[in-house]
Design a protein that fits this description.
alpha/beta; Rossmann fold; 6 strands; 33% helix
Length: 218
């Protein structure tokens, strides 16, 4: 469903967003649209909850985002990550017409931002950088990247209420672009080859040391 308005399946979006998701027990795509993020990370040992209040696609639930947050925010000892991809603020869009069954006005955005600041779990929000979101989400980490949209190349942002994680949900698409991702894969392959060329005791010692180092920093 790459043609769904605002879909993140267009080249450049999916990889950038997935590479920011910290390891978690539950991942909630609260405004799924085409649900490409959920589709990509499903089957990776994390419970994926896909929701589309627009009700235009066959997803797991059609709850209002407030109900979804009330249901999954800090559920027991499980680590939950919410990903929100709301209809972008009208003033930031290249196309000013109605795109969604339940499009948002300025008050809808203000209400959403008030709510999301109170969420205890880790949150990620996709949007164009703008004064309303920058002001409301002061103190949140903001990651910017360039990607194609229906109107051409735009700078997209992901706002996050958590520090850069030491452990990601998946490292399969880490990198700022395709070239960077290919370079990282080659570096990893060379490093693995070097370790594999060592005696088995040396391999085990190196792997154990790496695991202990990163476990201590978590």
């Amino acid at each position: 469903m790459k043609n769904y308005p605002g879909a993140k399946g267009i080249s450049g979006h999916l990889q950038q967003i997935v590479s920011l998701i910290p390891k978690c027990d539950v991942f909630v795509e609260a405004m799924a649209g085409s649900a490409v993020i959920s589709d990509y990370i499903s089957g990776r040992g994390t419970t994926v909850v896909t929701n589309d209040y627009d009700a235009s696609l066959p997803v797991e639930s059609h709850l209002h985002y407030r109900d979804l947050v009330a249901k999954y925010d800090c559920e027991g000892s499980l680590k939950t990550v919410f990903y929100f991809d709301p209809p972008y603020l009208m003033a930031t869009r290249s196309y000013q017409g109605k795109l969604y069954l339940h499009d948002w006005n300025d008050q809808d955005h203000a209400d959403f931002l008030t709510m999301v600041r109170a969420v205890k779990s880790d949150c990620m929000i996709s949007h164009y950088s703008c004064k309303l979101y920058d002001d409301a989400l002061q103190g949140w980490r903001k990651y910017s990247y360039s990607a194609m949209t229906r109107a051409g190349k735009r700078t997209e942002c992901v706002y996050m209420n958590f520090v850069e994680p030491l452990e990601l949900l998946t490292c399969s698409v880490v990198g700022i672009n395709r070239t960077d991702r290919q370079q990282i894969k080659r570096k990893v392959a060379r490093l693995i080859a070097k370790i594999q060329a060592l005696p088995i005791q040396h391999q085990q010692g190196i792997i154990t040391a790496i695991q202990q180092k990163f476990h201590q920093n978590q």
